[in-house]
Amino acid sequence: MQDLTLSIAQLYPTPLDIRQNTRKILELMENAAGNGSDLLLLPEMAVTGYGIGEAIEDPAIRKALQDETRSSLSKIRKAGKRLNLDVLLSYPLFSGKRVFIAAEYLRSGKRVALHRKINLCNYAHYTEHLHFAEGNSPTVATGGKAAFGILLCEDCWHAVNGIAETLLGAEVLLVPSAPCVEDVAEGKPCIERWETITRGTAFLQTSYVIMAALVGTESNRFFLGGSHVVTPEGEILLRLPLFEEALVQVRLEASLLENTREKRPLLRNERIDVIRESFRKVGHRNAKMGSGR
C-alpha cells in the first residue's frame, strides 16, 4: 500500500431517477479529482437508490432501469478515465432473470473488479432476499495505491467475508452501505452497532475499513448516513453526520498499516488449514441435514 487520499460521498440519490443520480455522481467525481483524491467511494445502490426491489418485478420498468444503468456506467467510466480517478460504484446488476446488488471498482475508467453482494439482508425491515440474487465470492480489487476488499453493507456483518478478503491480500476494506431505520430516534443506536462491527473488523483484520452510507428518505425508511473511517488499530479516524449529505476527504497512511501488521501479525499467523477443515466439516454436516439423513 501507498499513502492514499480518499473521498467519501454520503449521498441522497433520487429513487429510480438514474439520470439525475448520474449527474450528481459526475459532479462528485469532478470535486474529488479536483481536490487530489485517488479514489471516490460511493454508497450502496448510488445509481438507482436503494428501494427498487418491487420496481424491478415489472418487466417494463426493469428494462428501462437496465438500459439507463448501462448508460450511466458508460458516462461514469469515461469520466473516470478523463479524470484519472478510481471510483467504487454500486448499482443493480442485471444478469438474465437474476438481479444482483453489485459494486464495481473502476481504476481510471476501467473495471478491475465486480462484487456481487454475498449476504442479502432478510430480517427486520429489510427484504432484499425477495428481489435479489446472492453473490458467491469475496472480491479484492487492485487499485492504483492499494488492494481493496469490497463488502456490500450486510457482507460486513458476516466476519468470514472480511477474513477471506484480507487473506486474499486486501489492505483496505470498502463498505458501501444503505442502513436505514423506521424512526430517526433509532439512528444513534444503529450507527453504534455499525461501529462495533467496523471497528472489530479493522482491528482483527489489521486493515483500514471505510464505510460509505446513503442518506435520504424512501417510503417510511430513513437512511442513516454516519459514514466513517476506521484505522487498522480499530480507532475511528473520521465520522460523517447522521441523515445529511456530505463529501469529505481523508488520507490513509501506509506506514500505519505496515506498522500495525508488523506489531500484530494476525494475518500472517492465521491457521488457514484449520479454517479449511472446519468449513469442510460444516459443508458435510449441512449436506447430510439437507438430504434428511
CATH architecture classification name: 4-Layer Sandwich
Q: Mean pLDDT score, rounded?
A: 95
CATH class: Alpha Beta
User: β content, as a range?
Assistant: 25-35%
N-to-C SSE series?
Answer: EHEHEEEEEHEEHEEEEEEHH
Number of domain modules: 1
Say which CATH homologous superfamily is assigned.
Carbon-nitrogen hydrolase
Gyration radius over CA = 19 Å
Largest sheet: 6 strands, mixed
* Number of beta strands: 15
The side-by-side strand order for the widest beta sheet comes to: 5-4-3-2-1-15
Give the low-pLDDT segments.
none
Count of DSSP helices? 6
- Distance separating the two termini: 49 Å
Structure class: alpha/beta
Mass-distribution shape: globular
What portion of residues is helical? 25-40%
Describe the structure.
The chain has 293 residues and is of the alpha/beta class. It has a single domain, classed as 4-Layer Sandwich (Nitrilase/N-carbamoyl-D-aminoacid amidohydrolase). 33% of the residues lie in helices and 27% in strands. The strands form three sheets. The protein has a six-stranded mixed β-sheet with strand order 5-4-3-2-1-15, with helices on one face. Strand 2, helix 2 (59-83) and strand 3 form a beta-alpha-beta unit. Helix 1 packs parallel to helix 2 (59-83). The model has no long low-confidence stretch (mean pLDDT 95).
Keywords:
293 residues, alpha/beta, Nitrilase/N-carbamoyl-D-aminoacid amidohydrolase, 6-stranded mixed sheet, 6 helices, 33% helix, globular
